[in-house]
Design goal:
three-stranded antiparallel sheet, 41% helix, binds 3-methyl-2-oxobutanoic acid, alpha/beta, 17 helices, 512 residues, binds zinc ion
């Protein structure tokens, strides 16, 4: 390896800005610790000034992560910067990331500031940040639509004030690879003190070019890539973590640069992020999609049997995908489950393991072979959702060709048991009406989707819902052998997320 690319992961910050993808503090800590295990250099843990909940999450992550730098984002405002510095101060390796827009369109219409005023804002913000935290990153928001010479002046000012990483965001996903690479080269050539800093890039995927732009920027000399697992993020998302890491690894002959990432842990982290956020990975998604290593055509299958390299540029094992989806059954013991989960990247406490094991036994009584996906779903529901406000205790449905669907639902509402029966247009409608009555929710169901977790008619159903209440949107996810129960779990999960959002309001950050 001639050179190393710094991986800056923003799943917990920009990724959380994906509509509906709110994560609670426990979920964020779980993802952060997996990112640390993966070998991520910098974890952007959140936006501490956005809300007390965000502050608390960043601070807790900062206090627990030791190998990766823990970064917080702050607008170029004194209060944001002070709050952010306090949140990351407990980290072994703290980083403060501050930003201001530099494009004329943002200056004129959003900020109503002149170029000279923004230069001063950048200088003051970085100086203050540097006085509170040694590792400062500065981003020029909407850099790809900014005047290049002005951008270089802003960067020069930020470096002089103490920034050691300069980030070039393609905030609106507008850039094209050659053009973006040329911008990086221009900044490297025309920013006087650039030798004191690392150039970073942060691309959005509005034109489907985030990965291409990031790779082109690396070829042009950028040494930090800002990415998010499964490519989640604002609007069409961010550059995908797994695509950048695997492109650099697979085409090392061309890039002659690599990362510190242990690629064999990519797949479990992708699944974890999808489980927690409720954002499904599309089947044809590069690297981590269900079809990414599936060969359908006869010619391809023939080649694969003769020699996998005929049609496969990466081995599935390289990303932690095991071809045999091994399989546990009703006689598997707790120890086997523990080891199997450990291989999948889950280190559970004794109590957590006991909870998952009990659910495993109950599932194994009903389903012969338990696969990775089944186990993950049990971890997701048994461990990640332990402190929910609403929980399903019991669901009974009566439905069929000759009866009106009726659901009887018993729930724990903030620790107290309550039950309700409702009729509906179908069994799911009946169950949802009963849950809505019990929880007194006014949330609207925006989307409902269902799929099978594995093959076969005994597969667990996996349901995802999108709910809206007032201005808040949340995703919910649930799985079960019984699809009505899976639907109820997804709805209840979405309602719990809405409750979390209500209890942790985020003040939508405005421009400076
Ligand atoms: O897209 C963007 O410009 C950002 C900055 C805050 C880095 O997310
Ligand atoms: Zn962004």
């Amino acid at each position: 390896m001639d050179d190393r690319i710094i991986i800056f992961d923003t799943t917990l910050r920009d990724g959380e800005q994906s509509p509906g993808a709110t994560m609670n503090t426990a979920e964020k800590i779980r993802i952060a610790s997996k990112l640390e295990d993966l070998g991520v250099d910098v974890i952007e843990a959140g936006f501490p000034a956005a809300s007390p909940g965000d502050f608390d999450a960043v601070r807790q992550i900062a206090s627990q992560i030791t190998q990766s730098s823990v970064c917080g984002l702050a607008r170029a405002l004194p209060n944001d910067i002070r709050t952010c510095a306090e949140a990351v101060s407990v980290a072994k390796k703290p980083r403060l990331h501050t930003f201001v827009s530099t494009s004329d369109i943002h200056l004129e219409y959003q900020m109503r500031k002149s170029r000279e005023e923004v230069l001063e804002i950048a200088h003051n913000a970085v100086s203050l940040a540097k006085s509170l935290c040694d590792d400062v990153e500065f981003s020029a928001m909407d850099a790809s639509r900014s005047d290049r010479d002005y951008l270089c002046r802003v960067f020069e000012t930020a470096i002089a004030a103490g920034a050691r990483t300069l980030n070039i965001p393609d905030t609106v996903g507008y850039a094209i690879p050659e053009e973006f690479a040329a911008l990086v080269s221009y900044v490297l050539k025309n920013t006087k003190n650039i030798d004191k800093a690392i150039v970073s890039v942060h691309c959005h995927n509005d034109l489907g070019l985030a990965t291409a732009n990031t790779l082109a920027a690396i070829r042009a000399g950028a040494r930090q890539a800002e990415v998010a697992v499964n490519g989640i993020g604002e609007r069409a998302g961010n550059t995908s973590f797994e695509e950048i890491v695997m492109a650099l690894r697979t085409r090392n002959d061309l890039f002659k640069a690599d990362t510190r990432i242990d690629t064999t842990k990519i797949y479990p982290v992708s699944r974890l992020v999808s489980m927690i956020t409720g954002i499904m990975v599309q089947p044809n998604k590069a690297i981590v999609g269900a079809n990414a290593f599936a060969h359908e055509s006869g010619i391809h299958q023939d080649g694969m049997l003769k020699n996998p390299s005929t049609y496969e540029i990466m081995r599935p094992e390289a990303i932690g995908l095991h071809s045999s989806k091994l399989v546990l059954g009703k006689h598997s013991g707790k120890h086997a489950i523990k080891n199997y989960l450990k291989d999948m990247g889950y280190n559970l406490s004794d109590d957590e393991l006991q909870g998952v094991f009990e659910k495993f036994k109950s599932l194994a009584d009903r389903k012969k072979d338990i696969t990775d996906e089944d186990l993950e779903a049990l971890v997701n529901e048994g461990v990640l959702r332990s402190s929910d406000l609403f929980a399903l205790e019991y669901l009974h449905i009566s439905s069929g060709t000759t009866v009106d669907p009726i659901a009887h639902v018993k729930m724990l509402i903030n620790g107290r048991s309550a039950e309700e029966s409702c009729r509906g247009n179908g069994p799911i409608d009946a169950a949802y009406q009963a849950i809505a009555k019990l929880t007194r929710t006014s949330a609207t169901l925006l989307r409902f989707s269902i799929s099978a977790l594995t093959d076969g008619t005994d597969a667990q159903g996996e349901v995802t819902v999108r709910l809206r209440e007032g201005g808040l949107v949340a995703l919910g996810r649930g799985s079960d052998l019984d699809i009505i129960t899976a639907s109820a779990k997804a709805y209840i999960n979405g309602l719990n997320r809405l409750e979390y959002l209500k209890a942790n309001p985020t003040s939508a950050p405005e421009a400076i």
